[in-house]
Write a structure and sequence with these properties.
Elements lengths: L13 H14 L4 H11 L8 H13 L3 E6 L2 E6 L1 H9 L1 H28 L8 H16 L5 H19 L2
Antiparallel strand pairs: 1-2
Helix pairs in contact: 1-3, 1-4, 1-5, 2-3
Length: about 170
């Protein structure tokens, strides 16, 4: 991890986040939200970077020539460049160790979640799927912060319908 490691706040040095992003872009081009979602899934919720961390990192990678961006509708699709690939290759060990640590810690957290569910008889604690869905909803709402009044109204209607459906109305 470049020797830095995670603290309890699950913070990651920006250079390490940039390496992880390059590693994900090496697999396939991605939108910023897809980077966040992939890191969330690989770490089983242990590390979910905020848009305020990911989007500046993507912009920086583009500025230094390690990534390119293509407008796809209203969204940006990022791809790794040959220079980004060379940088990743020079630092592959760090990137792979980070991903391995994410998986290891995520697996431990998953085991703890399952143990709590078993001890509680499955009552009173969210399933991993429900927990992930709540996190995805919070992320989607965060991504839409500062939207137009019309978009806010559209989102409010979606949430009201979802609440009614959950309540069984």
């Amino acid at each position: 991890m470049g020797g830095r490691g995670f603290g309890m706040g699950r913070k990651l040095a920006s250079v390490d986040l940039q390496l992880l992003i390059l590693r994900l872009l090496e697999e396939k081009p991605r939108h910023g939200y897809e980077v966040i979602k992939e890191l969330d899934e690989r770490s089983k919720g242990f590390y979910v970077p905020s848009p305020g961390m990911v989007y500046p990192a993507l912009t920086y990678l583009e500025e230094i020539g390690h990534a390119t961006v293509e407008a796809v509708g209203t969204r940006k699709l990022y791809s790794i460049t040959p220079a980004g690939g060379a940088h990743l290759e020079a630092n592959r060990g760090t990137a792979e160790r980070l991903l391995e640590q994410f998986e290891r810690v995520g697996d431990r957290m998953d085991r703890v979640r399952r143990a709590i569910d078993i001890e509680d008889g499955g009552k009173g604690h969210d399933s991993s799927e429900l927990h992930r869905a709540r996190r995805q909803l919070r992320q989607a709402l965060s991504d839409k912060a500062g939207s137009s009044k019309e978009e806010d109204q559209r989102i409010a209607l979606i949430l009201q319908r979802a609440a009614a459906e959950i309540a069984g109305s």
